[in-house]
Amino acid sequence: MKHSYLFLVLLLGLLWASPVFAQQRYELNSDWYTININEVKASGEQLSQADFPVNTWMRATVPGTVLTTLLHNNKVPDPFYGMNNKLIKDVYHTGNAYYTYWFVKSFKQVAQGDEQVWLQFRGINYKAEIFLNGKKVNAKTHEGMHLRQQYNITKLLAPNGNNRLAVLVYPPDFPGNPNGGQGGDGTIAKGLTTQYTAGWDWIQPIRDRNTGIWDKVTIETTKAVNVENVHVVTLVPGKREAEGPQKPAVIRTSSEIVNPTAKVVNGFLQYRLANQLIRVAVTLKPGEKREVKLPDLSLANPKLWWPNGYGNQNLYQINMQFVTVSGKVLDQEAVKFGVREISNVWNDRTQSMEARVNGQKIFIKGGNWIISDAMLRFSDERYDAEIRFHRDMNLNLIRIWGGALTERPEFYNACDKYGLLVFQDFWFSGDCNGKWMDPLKKEDQWTRRQYPDNHQLALEAAADQIKLIRNHPSLAFWCGGNEITPPDDILGPLKNKLLPELDGTRYFFDFSNTDSMSYNSIGGNGDGPYSIQDIRTFWGHKTYPYNSEVGSVGVGDYASLQRFIPAKNLIAPQNGEQADSVWEYHKYIPYHQYIDPYGKAKTAADFAMKAQLVNYNQYRALMEGFSSHMWEWYTGSIIWKTQNPWTALRGQMYDYYLDVNACLYGLRKGSEPLHIMMNPLDSMIQVVNNGFKIERNLMVQANVYDANGKLQFSNQLFAEVGPSMVKKMFPINEPLKKLNDQDGAFVVLKLLSADQKLLSENLYWLPGKDGVYHGLQEMKPADLRVAVETVAKGKLNLLLENPSNGPIAFFNRIALENANTGMRILPTFFSDNYISILPGEKKTVAIEFPDQGTLPLAIRVYGWNVKDQQLPVK
Question: In terms of pTM, does the model score above 0.90?
């Protein structure tokens, strides 16, 4: 018996150590050619012959859209600049053939021995016919933007390895009239595609409605078995801490496996983790496809994944393999995952859902996300930059709005990395899908309520997309749609069958402002408002207890405006007057009376600077106001919205070009995990602790300065603040009343640790009693001294010093730019920006940016009362 056991151990070791099949997967992402269907009379069988000439066709952008290809070939002007979008023909007016294109790609591939070759499309919009080497690949026309396709093309490959792929792509059947309504006339929702492309209140219509091979095309080579749709579930029982030893977690896995051959295949489905080999014996019949579940693994002392601000984002990786009895690896899929468990409980006090991760309650600070780029020009680098911005804003959740996409795995990779939970809507919206009466819609509410036309397709796509993203630890919640559920015969199977069977670990909200998420006791739609607010409103007015959409302005600074507004249209908007036509076209939302207290804007540059002061205050106050009533009124809030996929002038913390504005830094300040703040209603100093542990021996400091930077009042005390709570400290209304009777004041709050380390700092600028910032308007210049030092490649430190006996160096914007042209280097990440320096104070700002090679760089600094200065980076 002993010898048999030793033999078995040796055999298993040999099986695992046997040569691993070198899986081949590569993208078909270059050397595509395209032509409009009206310009070629050949059939798909002819076009997919290797000798059919295509060298005179346009170079195509794949992944990409027809519009992207036309732009890259200079056939249309940049639709994001000025009024150019009006110069591009709209598919609704031209008819679908105008944007129906052939896409052709030649590639080399053969199948040797028992190799199987798979052609995979991760996204085509909207319909497609596919041909390879003179043969039709898809027996049935592909339909649906949100649906992957995979074809075994082994028998269709050319014997000499010279293959020609031809794909005919049609626009959505119902592109809809872009008549200015939310989603145009609404009929775009009759299909399963991006609704925003017919226009919304934050974007103009995308003329081709995103037609094209918009996502990755890959070739994968396997042996006799294909491993697909691996599923990893992690169970983390109990309430966990972010640090220290952990009790075990359970890893539960399964995978689909396919045998496309005519022979029976015997072997093992297996993976290794933490020196444990988990496997199950499998016999696959010819042509069989099925899901196989593996035994559970108990993972000792797991390194857990936490949302941003609460702990580390630890990740694991396994290789799910199918191995023959002789030890030959036929296929494998690498899967990354995080060990964490997300749950929800109903908070009876707030009357809203309370999110928990690893047993700990998480106060949601979120942002709404539309899509990275309205023309679907996605990249790993752009996704990483955008999600990093959300991390830098101290947010912990991103909601994917229902009129766009199931976001791509690359988006989720970035969220996994930076700790952003994701609230994923499915593809329905109240605007198009019938919630409201709307004279701009073509069909009545009863008809629109049943969109899309093909309900079975919607369920098929939902099942596919669930499998696509379900392993990501950042994926936290599913949602039926934006402000409305899907039709009942989609909602029921989605909620009661597909999600329990294919996921089973995440809460499903029927729609984005459903009462099961946030009970609406005050009437209205359950979300908003969407206009600029008096900052006191956020502190004193109780709104929806888990607000899925709240926010407003977001005009960028002058450099941002110059990128897409022609010089002749750079005219400062004035309160009560209609803005310039280009501003209106790019969806400017009025700042109303909130600019004039800083002095009436004389130029667009002047307006942009003053708008940043409003931006900063607006979003700092929003998050501070919600945090001040944490667990009392609210379990969370989600900003509408944090980014734009187009050059819009509202609802953004950074612009389309990835240049930051003051919204980002105001929100960053107000969302700090450990944060000191002042209630504008009663001047009460408060401290927010979002962490899991009590914070002891905190020094709370409050200093009040007059408009000239002279200290007029100071108070401090030691305090402690419990976990996940907000605590009141002391008011400072008397010194503020005195200074408000004059020209206004500055309030500087600091939170220090027992070793006098700065934990949180917050500066407020207050107007005089008439609401006008007289003190700011009459501020004397500050002699801000600036120096830059190179820390490492792509990393700088900016040293800022304001001499004593002068005014505050107020609201300084920092930018990294090309030293020769003055063009900004984007994206650039700053540890702080729009920063103020007290008299006699020094501060350091850390700056990170992508490698620029030998490009000469410079730092530019300019502020409210600080001269514009440029410093070379050496």
Answer: yes
